[in-house]
């Protein structure tokens, strides 16, 4: 199983960023994927989840209206898009596969650095 994320991104405040997470080694639609991020000096922050089989999503309240989770079954790739970026969105963004018991992450992407700066 592998989750391979896209490379680092640099954005200006107010812009949008889209991070990808390409899955391999398992059935793409069989597991939920969460997106979490870690800002400098901070702990992990849960952003939301996608059910790639049915397309349903759930996001943390603080991101509602700014975040979109999608899944492309043709390429086995998950995406998170965050808009109206601000400096506080500077963080490493991770995709994580929710294990079959639904109480842990069993595989992680390597992380994508997103930097929001002028």
How would you explain this protein's 3D organization?
- Strands 2, 4, 5, 6, 9, 10 and 11 form a seven-stranded mixed beta sheet that branches. Strands 1-3-8-7 form a four-stranded antiparallel beta sheet, with no helix packed on it.
- The termini are far apart.
- It is 0% helix and 51% strand.
- A hairpin with a 6-residue loop joins strand 9 (91-98) and strand 10 (105-108).
- It is globular and about 40 Å long.
- The protein has no helices and eleven strands.
- It has strands at residues 2-5, 9-11, 17-24, 33-38, 44-50, 57-59, 67-72, 77-82, 91-98, 105-108, 112-116.
- With 118 residues, it is mainly β.
Name its key features.
globular; 51% strand; four-stranded antiparallel β-sheet; mainly beta; seven-stranded mixed β-sheet; 118 residues; single chain
Short description:
The chain is an all-beta fold and 118 residues long. It is 0% helix and 51% strand. A hairpin with a 6-residue loop joins β5 and β6.
Strand content: over 45%
Query: In sequence order, what are the helices and strands, one letter per element?
Result: EEEEEEEEEEE
Give the CA-CA distance, first to last residue.
37 Å
Proportion of helical residues: under 10%
Major sheet characteristics = 7 strands, mixed
Q: Report the structural category.
A: mainly beta
* Mean pLDDT value: 96
Instruction: Specify Rg, calculated over alpha carbons.
Output: 13 Å
Given as residue ranges, the uncertain stretches (5+ residues, pLDDT < 50) are none
The helix tally amounts to 0
Total number of β-strand segments?
A: 11
| Overall morphology | globular
């Amino acid at each position: 199983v592998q989750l391979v994320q896209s490379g680092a991104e640099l954005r200006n405040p107010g812009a949008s960023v889209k991070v990808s997470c390409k899955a391999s080694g398992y059935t793409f639609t069989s597991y939920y994927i969460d997106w979490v991020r870690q800002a400098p000096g901070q702990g992990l922050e849960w952003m939301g989840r996608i059910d790639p089989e049915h397309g349903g999503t759930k996001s943390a309240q603080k991101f509602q209206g700014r975040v979109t989770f999608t899944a492309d079954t043709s390429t086995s790739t998950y995406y998170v898009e965050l808009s109206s970026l601000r400096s506080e969105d500077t963080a490493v963004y991770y995709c994580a596969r929710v294990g079959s018991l639904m109480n842990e992450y069993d595989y992680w992407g390597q992380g994508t650095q997103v930097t929001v700066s002028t």
